[in-house]
Amino acid sequence: MLSYIYRIVREYQKTHHCSPNLLYLNKEQFHHLRHAFSDPDNIDEMSRQLAMHIIISHDALHPHLARIEKCWAQADQLPRFGTRHTAFTQKSLRNNKKGL
Hints:
By secondary structure, this protein is an alpha+beta fold. The protein has one domain. 37% of the residues lie in helices and 16% in strands. It contains 4 helices and 4 strands, in the order αβααβββα. Strands 3-1-2-4 form a 4-stranded mixed beta sheet. It starts with a helix and ends in a 5-residue tail after the last helix.
């Protein structure tokens, strides 16, 4: 999963001449990505290493990328995409009673 993410990031950079800062995944893809890191529970570190916010989208058939110009410091400040998207940070994952 991680190698696929890096490949689509390179393609995005070539096409748009900038780096993406949003990564859209569905729950299953997110689960696979988490296990590519040494601490799969440290979502903030994953996001930092990828240099992207991670958005869980129930509509994402494949991982995809986007770029927003404004930087949001916390998940609750990320743009609202409706009820079918969830932005994750370490704090929001801890507060998520259901878990992934």
